[in-house]
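Support reply, case 0932

Customer input (verbatim):
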Amino acid sequence: MIKNKKIVLIIPPYKESKKGHLPLLSIGYIAAYLERGGYHVKIIDAIVLNISEYETVDMVLKENPDAVGITTVTSSRFSAIKIIKLLKVKDKNLLVFAGGRHFHSTAKESLEDILALDLIVRGEGEETCLELLNGYFEKKDLSEIRGLALRKDGKIIFTQERAPLDLNELPMPAWHLFDLSLYKQTLEGEKKTKAIGVISSRGCPNNCVFCANNSFLRTLRLLSPEKLVVQIEFLNKNYGYTGFDIWDDTLTMSRKHILGICDEIIKRNLKII
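Our regenerated output:
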């Protein structure tokens, strides 16, 4: 059923950010997971392309997608909502789903207010997106899929939560789906080294009131040092990156983990920062 189905994943435009923009790992991981599941995937990063919501929608529809996913943080939510509404005006039968920290935390309100939005992926998106799309194209009851918020019988329902993922079971982010030549940022804190972001863990066991993890999974899961450094070596050898921003929520939570990463970098003789 899923053969030749095309999924477009959108990073909406956001011009107010003073910080440099790099490939979004959440979308990269989901794209890779969907590709492994048999889907054709296209990523449209409207920030790096410097395009408007209208141009984003035109670019999406030129791909003739079978479904569209969009992510957003709270500060770019209005762009995401505009794109969702425009997509449905152009094609009312197109499946449009959303995820990311903002929609995770505001799932009920978003489905109440954004009638063009079909459903929301809550929590980590890899397994949920794949099962959602499989279920949709196979015409199954989506309310049986974990990790969703959706409308059913006139009500908004939350399906069962999904267990935290084992990061070591995930494929590497789909770097080939980003035009990496467009991302010109340097290592955070300096202005000369070509850089990209990676993660070696997800989650944090702490409960700080100001942090988005309060509404997300408070479980620390580690990617093995070897798997992280394989990723770093791949980006270094294939794309010329020498600077790496590690975007973990709490990188130094495990001393053994950090030392393992350092040992692996030394073992591979990587000349990186």
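We compared this against your earlier run and they match. Two observations from our side: Residues 225-239 form the longest helix (15 residues). The mean pLDDT is 93. Please reopen the case if you see a mismatch on your end.
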